[in-house]
Amino acid sequence: MAMRDICDCHMHILDHRYPLWSGAALNPPDALVGGYTKVRERIGIARCVVAGPSIYGSDNSCSRDAIVSLGIPARATAVLTKDSSNAEISELNKAGFVAARFNCIQGGPWKIEDMAPIARRIAGFGWHVQVYAGPSQIVEMAGILESLPTPIVFEHICRIRDPKGEDADAFATIAKIVERGRAWVKLSSPYLEPDTKGTQSDRFARTVAAFVEAMPERLVWGSDWPHATEKDQPDTVAMFLAFCSFVGVEKILDRILVENPAQLYGFK
């Protein structure tokens, strides 16, 4: 694929030199900048967004240092708490952070009821709220999500497997917020769907197709490197190529990989 300015909108850097949060649900091996560089060069990634790992709690040092070390234009998402100071948020903003991340699957040093107060505080910095949650959680949180004063980015297609069937309510909730011009969706991590295996999942392809049909102007792609939840490491390049084949139409693919991320994250 010959496409310039491809953006990986969801990846992590993991380094044992940074202390684990006491409530961490995972303890993955290191995944350093050098390893990611090899992958991104094979794909042709020119920009990226470092997703703040849940394993470090509200210590954003690893992601902050990664922005500097990656050697390409990069942004990052932070994990905040209700006690995070405005001074801290301001410093993170200067360092290239653009969002507060809420991982509702592995958890974090915050409560769901903290989401709205934190969103109000980051709104002044032009940040968005990034949410990783499953379909039932999205439906349960609909009232909170619709009331937030910031844009929302939904991670990993919210683990939706069947947007026209069992997950129709979650899909409709997301679509409603997107239609108001307030949300984006990351198409990533097919392996996070229960009871599916491999990178060529027909179910993931159908889910991607549903999102592409409904909201192509609000979709971005993420590798989820280094796939910290997986015992058997998937092939990042193969997953990327499979994703490209699922989208199919080059103009839409360019929008998802280049144009939409540039708009969302302010890349020029």
TrEMBL record:
Tell me which residues make up the Amidohydrolase-related domain.
7-267
Which GO terms of the molecular function aspect are on file? hydrolase activity
Matching Pfam families: Amidohydro_2
Do the record's keywords include Hydrolase?
Answer: yes
Domain of life, per the record? Bacteria
Keyword terms: Hydrolase
Keyword Hydrolase listed? The answer is yes
Q: What's the protein here called?
A: Hydrolase
